[in-house]
Amino acid sequence: MIKEQYPSKLLEDAVEAIRSLPGVGKRSALRLALHLLRQPQEHVHHFTESINRLRDEVRYCSNCMMISDGEECSICRDHSRDRRTICVVESVRDVMSIENTGQYHGLYHVLGGIISPINGIGPSDLTIRELTERLERLTAESSDPVEVILALSGDVEGETTAFYIYRQISKFGVTVTSLARGLGFGDDLEYADELTLGRSITGRQPFHP
Amino acid sequence: MIKEQYPSKLLEDAVEAIRSLPGVGKRSALRLALHLLRQPQEHVHHFTESINRLRDEVRYCSNCMMISDGEECSICRDHSRDRRTICVVESVRDVMSIENTGQYHGLYHVLGGIISPINGIGPSDLTIRELTERLERLTAESSDPVEVILALSGDVEGETTAFYIYRQISKFGVTVTSLARGLGFGDDLEYADELTLGRSITGRQPFHP
């Protein structure tokens, strides 16, 4: 029965391709392939064309390594932003998440991953050299203070990466900070893990009634 | 903040295109777009190419309307199958499901949908005319019995479609059957709905110990 499973090689190829996406199983892939088959041809061509264009034409900002349509990204081009505060993040998605808070007005530096020996990702696979070069330029330009925010995840890999970067950049005399950790808004004390609750207590803040 | 949400128009276009897939939300679409961006270029091209080829080159079997790479599908081309039993189903996926059971050795007829006034789908949008022409040919060819299995879903739309087809094909003097309904294997009596349990009782079978 296995070889007869797909009525068409074309369908089988498309299902296999769609299945290669993360989190998409065989059944969903078939459902998506049959959905695309029912769409107007120009709709399907627009779909594939926009994916091809993304892959073929996207660029990375020469300053912060963020996805960009040009030489510099829209954040680095925005001169109303604080150019001497750099928020170091793992990925493009983290930049988008922080931008959505509307609380940050500095620039970014996208590492493009996190140090993870288990996945074979070392410091040289990330944009850490670009960060040190950038800090070298910034501190040479002016003696105004520079702040680097290490906005990495709180797991072992995130902590390792933060520590590695800290050692690389401490020579520039910049202020290095990291994200506040604690209970989320609306979180219930009862259900918080001990580590988070512990950090919330040691990092307690003055009460503003 | 809304206009700044995407760092790149190319990314935004790709996310919008991926979001048009059923069951894919904004966050998943972004995740998939960024995943594709990290893949080798030839991998992405293979992905989009296989979808384009499916949409542009797939054909439908001239006999049963199943997806096919040629004039006739592999099931209709298989002359070891019973050519006078036709299983009428809504979609390509139903054919694949029934084929996977390994229990059916006749041919199929794919309606390409189900009668649904609420979705604006009438009998003329389905391949019912092709079915009647097929039965006309089959019954003219030989006086051997022909069986049509109406393998449609058990909801109102399925029942309506089955009844409509039944009226269209009864003039050919073919045997018309429908799928057995009842408790599924391993189903618990306690949790079965009344309709299903009722059908299981009225349609009870001789016990084979």
Write the layout of secondary structure elements.
Two copies of one chain form a homodimer.
Chain A: H1 9-19, H2 26-38, H3 41-57, E1 59-60, E2 67-68, H4 74-77, E3 82-89, H5 92-101, E4 106-110, H6 128-141, E5 147-150, H7 156-169, E6 175-178, H8 194-202
Parallel strand pairs in A: 3-4, 3-5, 5-6
Antiparallel strand pairs in A: 1-2
Number of helices of chain A: 8
Structural class of chain A: alpha/beta
User: Percentage of helical residues of chain A?
Assistant: 40-55%
Shape, per Cα inertia axes of chain A:
globular
The description of the largest β-sheet of chain A is:
4 strands, parallel
Succession of helices and strands of chain A: HHHEEHEHEHEHEH
Q: Roughly what fraction of the amino acids of chain A lie in strands?
A: 5-15%
Mean pLDDT of chain A: 90
Low-pLDDT stretches of chain A are: none
List how many beta strands of chain A DSSP finds. 6
| Main sheet: strand order of chain A | 4-3-5-6
N-to-C span of chain A: 70 Å
Radius of gyration of chain A: 23 Å
Please identify the oligomeric state: homodimer
> What pair of chains forms the biggest interface?
A-B, 60 and 60 residues
